[in-house]
Q: What sequence folds into this?
């Protein structure tokens, strides 16, 4: 059996940033959307995470590790808030060849970014990966 598994999920939530964050890390909130699951972790990179519960009459005890990647698909306001609290290690932008006259700036304040990878696609879209530069 392959023990090197990664779980991924996506959802759209009509709530404020604070409410979404609370739902992601608060044990009682997690129980509501994870079928009564109990979760144990300190939510730090490299830390263990344990999911315990019962599903369809069968008990489970799944263990894992908090990885260094949390993917957030969101608006400029979410990016600005996470950046303000220094919660982002890496930014990935999909750049589409479309010209707009105006828009919302991604960052309110100057952010020192270092381009670490550029990946073009046949469609003309380019994936740009940045890490935070030195302050």
A:
């Amino acid at each position: 059996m392959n023990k090197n598994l990664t779980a991924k999920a996506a959802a759209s939530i009509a709530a404020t940033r604070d409410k979404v964050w609370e739902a992601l890390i608060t044990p009682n909130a997690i129980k509501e959307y994870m079928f009564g699951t109990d979760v144990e972790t300190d939510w730090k990179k490299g830390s263990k995470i344990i999911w315990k519960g019962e599903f369809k009459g069968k008990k489970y005890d799944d263990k894992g590790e908090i990885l260094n990647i949390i993917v957030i698909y969101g608006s400029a306001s979410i990016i600005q808030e996470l950046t303000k609290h220094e919660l982002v290690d890496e930014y990935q932008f999909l750049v589409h060849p479309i010209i707009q006259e105006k828009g919302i700036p991604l960052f309110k304040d100057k952010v020192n970014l270092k381009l670490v990878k550029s990946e073009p696609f046949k469609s003309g879209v380019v994936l740009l990966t940045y890490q935070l530069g030195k302050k």
Q: What stands out?
A: The first strand starts at residue 38 and ends at 40. The beta strands are 38-40, 48-55, 58-65, 90-95, 113-120, 126-132. The chain has a mean pLDDT of 80.
